[in-house]
Design brief:
The protein has about 90 residues and is α/β, with parallel strands linked by helices. Helices cover about 35% and strands about 20% of the residues. It has one domain: 3-Layer(aba) Sandwich (Hypothetical Protein Ychn, Chain: A). It contains four helices and five strands; from the N terminus they run βαβααββαβ. The chain has a five-stranded parallel β-sheet, with helices on both faces. Helix 1 (about 15-25) runs parallel beside helix 3.
Length: about 90
């Protein structure tokens, strides 16, 4: 049975560690996964966590809508975020 590959978007608004785990896990099935942090700025502890390392192993480059994080992640404006949502086959908000 062939797996249907989807383009998925994970929005992290409240639980960044869980969002990272979910995003990385979805790549196991061959899905194209994007992760966008939309809540509060992430702490250094979260950004350097083992969970964050899963993103690199999964070849996910997270983005953000949080201006304070623009120096370390690609900053999406509201138009770019809307475009990402519209282009995704599915959106998961965590």
């Amino acid at each position: 049975m062939e797996t249907v590959k989807k383009k998925l978007l994970v929005l992290s608004s409240r639980a960044p560690l869980e969002a990272m785990r979910v995003a990385a896990g979805l790549t196991i099935f061959g899905h194209e996964v994007a992760l966008v942090f939309t809540g509060e700025p992430l702490s250094l502890e979260i950004m350097e966590s083992e969970t964050a390392e899963l993103l690199a192993l999964s070849e996910i480059e997270p983005e953000t809508t949080i201006p304070e994080m623009a120096k370390i992640l690609n900053l999406l404006d509201s138009e770019a975020l809307a475009r990402a949502i519209m282009q995704a086959d599915g959106v998961i908000n965590i």
